[in-house]
Amino acid sequence: MRKDKVKKLAKRFLIHLIVIGGAAVVMLPFLWMISISVKNPGNLAKYPIELWPAKPEWQNYLEVWRRATVPRYMWNSVFMSTLYAALAVFTSAMAAYGFARHRVKIKNLYFTIVLATMMIPGIVTMIPQFVLFYRVGLLNTYWPWAIWGLSTSAFLIFLLRQFFSTIPVELEDSAKIDGCGRFRTFVAIFLPISKPALAAAFIFAFSWIWGDYIPPSLYLQAEKIPFCVAMIRGLSAPFRPDFAPDTPVQMAGAIYFLMPLMFLFFFTQKLIVQGIVTTGIKG
Fold it and tell me: Where are the domains of the chain?
């Protein structure tokens, strides 16, 4: 019995050691980015390497606010990301519900076609979409992101379909007996018990738009651009007389850029992990 306990403790210790080591490796670039963000540009090439400066340059974070107007552009990013994510998750959930529950002979063919669209590079449709939005007068508005959200996402359809397939058929039959139609069954039965999968899908969709640079830089101007575009434009080299990259200020801007995603993941990590795990239970 003692040998078994020792083996279990040794196994648990080894697992924890591996997890802690992996977490340290993942966190190292982030910690190094924080270190650079409080350094002086002249100390970046200092040898031996200085892990933490003797006099941290905290004004680098204030410089980001001065150049990029953080609150305004951060709000633009939050609005755009939330708009797209909310619409994409809802419409993709409806499509996923149809693929998971409706009995159609060529359903699998339709689903294969939907998955095949993920192999089309976004750069292929970028110019036709730009021409289309230009002709209908939607440039410098957030309507393109609403339209993209309403057009669903193949990846989210696949993710949510896998989760909906695990829901017992008895719940759907009970709803039918109570007089619920297809849409009411979807809203009243499937959505409430699919919070983990919906949360995971929302985080995926939100992060796609949050870090997307090319479409906002093409479609939006002036005060409507998101924070990622404002950060790259406002913290770039031309603001320095010698045109040298101001790396510490850029790293401070990157910290601002990552903070909302980190907080969002921190408060929803249980739902995200649960949603990702349960989507693979049944195909």
Answer: 62-278
- What six digits make up the tokens of 137? 């007068």
CA–CA separation, 31 and 205 (whole Å): 26
Amino acid 276: pLDDT: 61
pLDDT at position 11, please?
85
Q: Which two tokens stand for residue 165?
A: 């397939």
CATH class assigned to 62-278 = mainly alpha
What are the tens digits of pLDDT across the range 81-139? 999 999 999 999 999 998 988 877 888 888 899 989 889 888 888 999 999 999 999 99
**Packing angle of the helix pair 227-234, 70-101 (nearest 10 deg):** 140
What is d(CA 73, CA 213) in angstroms, rounded to the nearest whole number? 13
Q: Give residue-wise pLDDT tens across range 164-181.
A: 888 888 888 787 887 878
Which DSSP string do the residues of the chain spell out, in sequence order?
Answer: -HHHHHHHHHHHHHHHHHHHHHHHHHHHHHHHHHHHHTS-GGGTT-SS--SS-SS--THHHHHHHHHH-HHHHHHHHHHHHHHHHHHHHHHHHHHHHHHHH---TTHHHHHHHHHHGGGS-HHHHHHHHHHHHHHTT-TTSSHHHHHHHHT--HHHHHHHHHHHTTS-HHHHHHHHHTT--HHHHIIIIITGGGHHHHHHHHHHHHHHHHT--HHHHHH--GGGS-HHHHHHHHTSGGGSTT----HHHHHHHHHHHHHHHHHHHHHHHHHHHHHHHHTTS--
- 10, 110, 138, 144, 197 from 131: Cα distances, Å: 63, 28, 10, 12, 35
Distances (CA, A) of 130 to 12, 26, 85, 195: 55, 38, 21, 35
The answer to whether the Cα torsion of 138, 144, 150, 152 is positive or negative is: positive
